[in-house]
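User: Here's a chain of 216 residues. Predict its fold as tokens.
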Amino acid sequence: VFRRISPSVVHITTLGVQRDLFSRNVQQVPRGTGTGFVWDDRGHIVTNFHVIQGANAARVTLADQSTHAARLVGAFPDRDLAVLKIDVPAAKVPPIPLGSSRDLLVGQKVYAIGNPFGLDQTLTTGIVSALNREIDAVNGRTIRGVIQTDAAINPGNSGGPLLDSAGRLIGVNTAIFSPSGASAGIGFAIPVDEVNRIVPRLIRDGRFVRPAIGVT
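Assistant: Prediction complete.
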């Protein structure tokens, strides 16, 4: 699974602006890191919104260690999802195979690929610990139907794929529950059926608008 899917997983470095106190020159400096994965052969990259939130720019490093400037296509903070785009030949960006999250079962084996603490192309494994969890998005909205897993997920794993035993995408690793900030065996992933509903709209329109009547 790792050998087949890892070329579809990328390392994302976000950049911020820093002004030199003496020369007053403005330069871009690394701000943080995260994970993403290739959505299609046009160079669209899916990651978490909180990975790129507040960044001035982003770079995407592919499995062959080549680095490319990325632009933001669209974001949906309510589900902590964002889409970036890089301009590379289709052969360099194999899309990740999509699975389904409708029929997941507690106890089934899962794999996570990501860049914990900046250590790129790291594989961890575990099981589906629970289904239909609720977590808060970065904007305070509730994300429902979330997958809970005990596969080790640490800072830097955010935005990476959660895979089933056939190597198909079943979720996007998005958060951990941990008093220490490191993996405590409780990780959460946005289910792929929700991702597959939102990402094509972000690619097409740059945003995802939901009808609402203002009542909860």
